[in-house]
UniProtKB/TrEMBL annotation:
The lineage of its organism: Eukaryota, Viridiplantae, Chlorophyta, core chlorophytes, Chlorophyceae. SUPFAM superfamilies: Metallo-dependent hydrolases. This is Uncharacterized protein. Residues 149-177 have a biased composition (Gly residues). GO terms for molecular function: hydrolase activity, acting on ester bonds. PANTHER family: CUT9-INTERACTING PROTEIN SCN1 (PTHR47345). Pfam families: TatD_DNase. It comes from Edaphochlamys debaryana. It comes from the Eukaryota.
């Protein structure tokens, strides 16, 4: 995704100043992804899982590019309806979906979707029940229901550009997040013991891992329908992720579209003991006023908030002015940059583009800005980088 500025800053700045990609999804384009990630000029990538079905692919990438990939595990709101928090939701999957207020659709209109959600597992013979390792590299194991633009859970595959397949991407609060992740928005609902247990296990196994990505999205629509992942359930899932991250002392990367007020209320209610040590609002699309609202959250919670930006939304020129305003509004020490790309091939370019945009927005020389965001990256990801260094040390000793 290219920026509208003429020349991009040199990729060597990324390496020289240690500017990592704070949020991306290269696991969505899995062919030889480890090598392509290792070859990047961007020195480090926080690779976001989006659902139980792709955590295995994230883990694989972290193994294939050790020291370069910070694995992150969470449930993106586009897939909220596939991750239950109670056993009753398993038996009544319609409760995980919201109908549009205009009454123009309802879960009952989508029997195939409901059947898939309630686990018509008979045809999904290759579908593992653990979810781990099934994402990314495995071939599609289940034919998609009729009219579905995307395959069953666990079959992400390389994706198109942002705003794909009817999920997310609408509204003025842009998040080009996980472009290809609409693949997999249909499938069976996972029991809480299954996915939450797996999430905990992965975080335990990867002490440098973040919890992410997860959050709130009022614009998300289940592909092929006008149904949305239940917002009440999105809120409950978000709280569950925050609680786990707070308990384990992990930073988080959060997605938020048209829900910033709810998110602020939730963080205020949870307070310092219920909030994670660091909170990244990825592809921040809220208002300039809300920036202050977040950084002034009481009890020191405001000091934990970072704002990350990508140039993906520059694909829409009408959004560029808003991006530049937001880039200029965040406190300098809380600014992170991300590509938000779903293929390693576009990470370096995405990082160079947002670097240029951020320098322009803040009226800084590119090198000065690069130095500052390199520092911010190391500050936000300090615990991850430390854990990865220790792991590398241990592996060296074992050799
Ligand atoms: Zn994302």
């Amino acid at each position: 995704m290219s920026t509208t500025t003429a020349a991009l800053p040199d990729a060597s700045l990324l390496t020289r100043f240690g500017i990592g990609d704070a949020h991306c999804h290269p696991q969505d384009d899995p062919h030889d992804a480890g090598r392509r990630v290792r070859d990047l000029r961007t020195p480090c990538l926080a690779v976001m899982g989006t659902r139980a079905g792709d955590w295995g692919a994230v883990e694989e990438l972290a193994k294939a590019a050790p020291g370069k990939v910070i694995p992150c595990f969470g449930v993106h709101p586009w897939f909220a309806h596939l991750h239950a928090l109670s056993d009753t939701q398993l038996s009544d999957p319609a409760a995980l979906l919201d109908s549009p207020p205009n009454g123009k659709d309802a879960p009952v209109n989508h029997p195939q979707l409901l059947a898939a959600m309630s686990g018509s597992r008979s045809r999904s013979s290759g579908s593992s029940s653990s979810g781990s390792g099934s994402g990314g590299t495995s071939p599609r194991v289940q034919p998609p229901p009729a009219g579905t633009p995307a395959g069953g859970d666990g079959a992400p595959g390389p994706g198109p550009g942002p705003g794909g397949a009817g999920v997310g991407g609408s509204g003025d609060e842009g998040c080009g997040c996980g472009p290809s992740t609409s693949a997999g928005a249909r499938g069976r609902v996972r029991a809480p013991g299954e996915w939450l247990g797996e999430l905990r296990r992965l975080l335990g196994e990867h002490p440098g891992a973040l919890v992410g990505e997860f959050g709130l999205d009022r614009a998300a629509v289940v592909p092929g329908t006008r149904l949305k992942p239940s917002f009440a359930h999105q809120l409950a899932l978000t709280e569950a992720h925050l609680a786990l991250a707070a308990e384990l002392g992990r930073p988080v990367s959060m997605h938020c579209v048209q829900s910033y007020g709810h998110l602020q209320d939730l963080l205020r209610r949870l307070g310092p003991s219920g909030c994670p040590p660091k909170i990244m609002l990825h592809s921040y699309g809220g208002s300039v006023d809300l920036v202050k609202g977040f950084t002034r959250l009481p009890g020191g919670v405001g000091d934990r908030i970072y704002f990350s930006f990508s140039s993906v939304i520059n694909a829409r020129p009408d959004r560029r002015a808003g991006l530049l305003q937001r880039l200029a509004a965040v406190p300098p020490e809380r600014l992170l940059l991300e590509s938000d790309q779903s293929s390693a091939d576009r990470v370096d370019e995405g990082m160079r583009a947002i670097l240029a945009d951020a320098a322009e927005a803040r009226g800084m020389a590119v090198e000065a800005l690069a130095a500052a965001v390199g520092d911010n990256f190391r500050a936000f990801f300090a615990s991850s980088l430390e854990a990865m260094a220790k792991q590398a040390q241990r592996q060296q000793q074992q050799v």
